Amino acid sequence: MKEGKLMKVCHSTTHNCEKHTDRDLARQWNSIDWDKTRDTVNRLQIRIAKATKEENWNLVKRLSYLLTHSRSAKLLAVRIVTQNKAMASK
After folding, report:
1. pLDDT class of 10 with cuts at 50, 70, 90
2. pLDDT tens-digit profile of 44-79?
3. Are 47 and 63 within 8 A, CB to CB?
């Protein structure tokens, strides 16, 4: 059986000009306004609950999509998970 050559393949789709150092990423993470992020997510959750109570299922579906695809919800989810892991390791 023939063995082929190993190839170096870069699967990153990030352009070199967009790559950040760990320090840059930490600075960005620490500069996030967490109160505003939490309020944004909470406001969407309240709107979903209100639409559910009114049985407006089309609106529930649209708002749920907005929530699951929002940057705020993703950031908050990552923050909660990383804080839980940090507390569990103590």
Report:
1. low
2. 999 999 999 999 999 999 999 999 999 999 999 999
3. yes
Structure tokens at 6: 């190993």
- Residues 60, 52: Cα–Cα separation, whole Å: 6
Using CA atoms, how far apart are residues 77 and 32, in angstroms rounded to an integer?
14
The whole-model pTM stands at 0.70
Q: How far apart are CA 86 and CA 79, in angstroms?
A: 10
**Taking the CB of residue 63, how many other CB atoms lie within 10 A of it?**
20
